[in-house]
Amino acid sequence: MIILPIISCLILLLLAFIHVYWAFGGTKGIHAVIPQDDHHQRKFTPGKWATLLVALCLFSACLILGIQSSLIPFAGLANLARILCFFCFLVFGLRAIGDFNYVGLFKKRRKTFFFKMDTVAYTPLCLLLSFTFIYVFLTN
Fold first, then answer.
1. Among 121, 111, 101, 100, which residue's Cα sits nearest to residue 40?
2. 37 falls in which pLDDT band (50, 70, 90)?
3. Which domain holds residue 16?
């Protein structure tokens, strides 16, 4: 079942590159990824450095998953990768559960474009990534 970690690594890489694109001024798709209130106002506006930090975290998650699933042979970091793999499982799992207001499975705000995107794409993706990390953690 090596296909699941491969697909997840590719998704994480793609997401990292999209965040780099946004950090350097790209605007395509940006309106769909930031939570909005009931008046369709963004809840926050991330800066360049915060967006680059998210890109770095996504790229790091890709490396962690790659090392833990043996896609990237790097025996020197095996123990650290295992611990970080579990941490990634928690992070993506908590993101999928959400804040009980704007994001995740139990969100209350339902009249925004972000709500629709979160329901059909972001939360299921976080569930998939969380599952992938725990699967790789338990099987390697």
1. 111
2. confident
3. 3-27+46-139
